Amino acid sequence: MNNFGEIIEPSSRTTWEDWDENNSSTDTQTNLQFQKHIEIPNDIEIFILLEGKYLAHSIKQNVCNLELINSVPEISLKIYKMHSLESYVCIIYDYDIICSSEIIHLLEKYITNSKKVISMITKPLVEYATSEVCHEECVIRRLSTKNCKNSSLSKYPCLEQPNIISGISAGVVCLREHLDLSALALVFYTEYPEEHEQNEIHKILENFHFKFNPKPNGILNSNLYI
Amino acid sequence: MELKWKKLDNSNLRGYTAVVPSVAVGNVGQLACDLLISSLRMKKIASINSIAIVPILGYDPYDHNTIDLSMCCELYKCDEKKIIVLQLRAPLVYKYATSFLKQILEKFKESGINDIVILTSSYAHEKKHIMTSPFRYLVNEYSSYKNEIQKLNWTEHEIIENGIKILGGGFASLLYGICIEQLVPCLILYKYCSEGDNIPDAYEMIQYLDSVLRIFNRDKDLSSQLVQPISWKYLYGRPPPIGIY
């Protein structure tokens, strides 16, 4: 509750920078960097980006098929090499949206050197703008570049206007579209993006040889015990 | 920092006016630009990719029946009215903004753009003289609109000793400063407003802009000539669930 006369900015604006103050300190901020300097191959088969807590936590990352090759701890970004598909997987879930363009810059070689690029993101179902009544627990929509053809994921309907995505998943596809390369983003609108097991999402990820962690113990997220 | 331009059209822009919205309170400038693009059926001529822009992705916000992607920073033109609009759908990253805006202006100068009009807004609580119009303007010495605006009797922005400050106005004053440095004619038009349903503010902004640029037919009612983009559907949320009635 706010006090009389108190001005509360809507939450959507709280992530943006303050342009009214002299923000000269931001000029000296260090740019994000990978922990290791490693050679990025010129011909990556697929680059998969998984964004959000649900995707990051439901996928088993300690398996022999996934080899951790690099990371940026400040933003919880990890890059894995997936041996079975000759592909690279980037998992990210905790970053400031203002840094998205810098993160894209960091990932640029992976994005441009890959034949196929797929990004996946989860969003709360309440953010899905539609006039139709949603009875589904998970709505899957796609955004694909002009050159994206014959993908098995093309069967999903296009994301209807005025819905948009922002951040890394958006940046990956934007960059590919800018370079006239193919890319596809899948948006999973789910009612419980962090807790429930989503079979539809798992089915899609299984096609890319991902394994899953067991269902999280819901009691830990309850308000019953600490 | 380098801007990556993807040109979809190589036409001549000599003599055009560039309208640039600053991401500000209530997004009034951006909403006004959306109205312009939609009403004039402007054509997308370029998109810009840069580290200075927060990425945004969706399908064309002005056309339902297309599979063209729309991104954060795009350039639209209307040949008939000799106007281009640089539509921004997210704020700029502060530390890269100066370089971004300088490069944009450089490109505009190369293309022969005549002048720049910046549309923005400021916090309603910053308006000191409450009986005056909520609109303010600021025009530099190179702009040809100065005499016209004086006839219209608009209220000029008050310049305080520390330079030009439009609180809540985003990069407007920064771009204005760059225009002065590079001798580019520039007009800032802004409205004092609050966050909320800012569609009426955008309509008023277009009305003010039209008084200077003369974009729409004077013989017809202005609001009847304005077309809201399809992306404004559900701008302030989804319809209420049927189950509650």
Automatic annotation (TrEMBL), chain A:
InterPro entries: Proteasome_assmbl_chp_1 (IPR016565). It comes from the Eukaryota. GO terms for molecular function: proteasome binding. Keywords: Chaperone. GO terms for cellular component: endoplasmic reticulum. GO terms for biological process: proteasome core complex assembly. The keyword Chaperone applies. Coiled coil: none annotated. Belongs to the PSMG1 family. This is Proteasome assembly chaperone 1. It comes from Bombyx mori (Silk moth).
From TrEMBL, chain B:
The keyword Transferase does not apply. GO terms for biological process: proteasome assembly. Keywords: Chaperone. Pfam families: PAC2 (PF09754). One of its GO terms (cellular component) is nucleus. Chaperone protein which promotes assembly of the 20S proteasome as part of a heterodimer with PSMG1. Forms a heterodimer with PSMG1. Belongs to the PSMG2 family. This is Proteasome assembly chaperone 2. The lineage of its organism: Eukaryota, Metazoa, Ecdysozoa, Arthropoda, Hexapoda. The gene is 101742273.
